[in-house]
Structure prediction request, 286 residues.
Amino acid sequence: MSLITDRIFFEALKNDEEIAALCTDTGEAVRIFNPAAPVPDEDLDNVKLPYIVVSFDGMSNEDGTKDDRFEGDEDTVSISITIVEKTRDLLAVLSEKVRKVIPEYFEALENNEEDEELTELIPIQYKLTTGPVTYSPDKPCCFIRMNYSCLTNA
Amino acid sequence: MYLKGQNLRVFIGGSVVAEATNCTITITGNTEDVLTKDDVGLFSKDKVTSNGWQVTVDSLNVNDVGTLITTMKSMSPVTISYDQTSTTDNTTAQTAGFHRSGSAYLTDATFTFNDREWSAKNLQFTGTGELN
Prediction:
């Protein structure tokens, strides 16, 4: 199931009222996208701010034991969350919310045991790193990429 | 023909060590220096007087910690064997060319439980008597 791990990150952000409210305008769809913003690259500057993109960046199978014939039981999955906002200060606020919401959602899902299919996507553990805060004068906007290196069941 | 390490397994009392990652088999010739005044020169003159053997195995399965501690405390030997397994069934001994077995004491058992890593065990068996 690890090939759709990005889905649980996407659900975590979509289901948070604060983040969803920040990423929408009245009468419009929430601007949290997976696996990419639904516009050609040359039109990205026209996407309203803020918006968030959750993407699946790759997977590698972990070495197993002698009991495994071909593949180990765990995968390392890379998920990235790119957050784009108008200013540096607003970016800081939204990215902190995103950081907080992810583990809270996973824990709530584990304790709830309602959606078994989604619960199976919860990583065994993950390591979070981020890239630099970047400013683009063309739009203008600031953005940051949060990288989750997740250990998941294969 | 090359043998993949995956297909060489250690068995304790006939049961394969589950979820093993590595295993090592060491056979040692124990020597004594039999140099006498009849010998000239500066070199030692070693003679093998006995053989010994050891088998070590690493595994990610720590469910048998209690059983292994009991085995060690009992200070009784167990039957250890190692063998080649087939590529399709990697848990059944083939009793092939690599097959050997003997009695051995569990002389070292190390269990590691590191944060954010899989728990693991390392077992060292020291042979008593012949490796057949």
